[in-house]
């Protein structure tokens, strides 16, 4: 099968599209023919030099989430039938077998049935970003109905889904983004949008101080945004593990695979309450271009790599 592999840490020159052995499902595993995978910042960040707690086995296949169809079942794997459409976030303890490939063998516990109301290729945009948003808002952030949440870096894959999840919970949402995305995020359900290039955006946020900040961007925007936080409010960050101001209720996060969480997101999608936004499609042959575009940080929603028509 074709796969995009990382030969060593460094730049994009260390990525190679090559033929590798098609996996065989082990006990409790499913062989999935991958329809699509989505591009996530963690892909190129890991390429640049890894991340604490995740060790590489070179050459490893890049990629963390996918959608596809079950082609073969290993011994005792009986949750799904051959031919079922599934999707999932495939995080392993080591970097070895990823989703930038035509097939993957994965424990069935990692998978959920794919939504029926969106295209299978678009379902690949949900697992990592959707679980990050859901776990950050609920499991870690304990967002409640009626609270005000401010999302920093709201136009990306995680932020776009976080807006909709927060609205499903019953919260009010202030989205912080660049000027080109203000109208787009209002369409996604934000109650208000603030332009981070406007020097007064923090003082505007202070007029209705948020109970909770969900950070998807870090840097100066986070450093400034926390000044608007309501006293006693919480901050959950996808970019940092800790924050210099120890008076803040600050939590860093790294998303975990969770099929029951993903089942809830599936239900919302099929009921029209959650809609992933895909800004552009690539193929496995030009996946490196997709990674470069994602690294620029200016895309709306998600970028998807479609394996076949």
CATH topology of the largest domain: the name is Quinone Oxidoreductase, Chain A, domain 1
User: What structural category characterises the helix and strand content?
Assistant: alpha/beta
**What is the first-to-last residue Cα distance?**
17 Å
* Relevant CATH superfamily of the largest domain: Medium-chain alcohol dehydrogenases, catalytic domain
* Beta-strand segment tally: 18
Overall morphology = globular
What average pLDDT do the residues reach? 96
Low-confidence runs of at least 5 consecutive residues: none
The share of residues in helices is: 25-40%
Task: Work out the helix count.
Answer: 9
| Strand content bin | 25-35%
Q: Tell me what the CATH architecture of the largest domain is.
A: Alpha-Beta Complex
Largest sheet entry: 7 strands, mixed
* Number of structural units classed as domains: 2
Task: Provide a concise account of the structure shown.
This protein is α/β, with parallel strands linked by helices and 309 residues long. Helix content is 27%, strand content 28%.
Task: Note the main attributes of this structure.
309 residues, alpha/beta, Quinone Oxidoreductase, Chain A, domain 1, Rossmann fold, 2 domains, six-stranded parallel sheet, 28% strand
Which SSEs are present, and which pair or pack?
Layout: E1 2-6, E2 15-19, E3 29-38, H1 41-49, E4 55-56, E5 60-61, E6 65-73, E7 85-89, E8 94-95, E9 103-107, E10 111-113, H2 120-123, H3 127-140, E11 148-152, H4 157-169, E12 172-177, H5 182-187, E13 192-195, H6 201-207, E14 212-215, H7 219-225, E15 234-237, E16 249-252, H8 259-270, E17 278-282, H9 287-296, E18 302-306
Parallel strand pairs: 4-8, 11-12, 11-14, 12-13, 14-15, 15-16, 17-18
Antiparallel strand pairs: 1-2, 1-5, 3-6, 3-9, 3-18, 6-7, 7-10
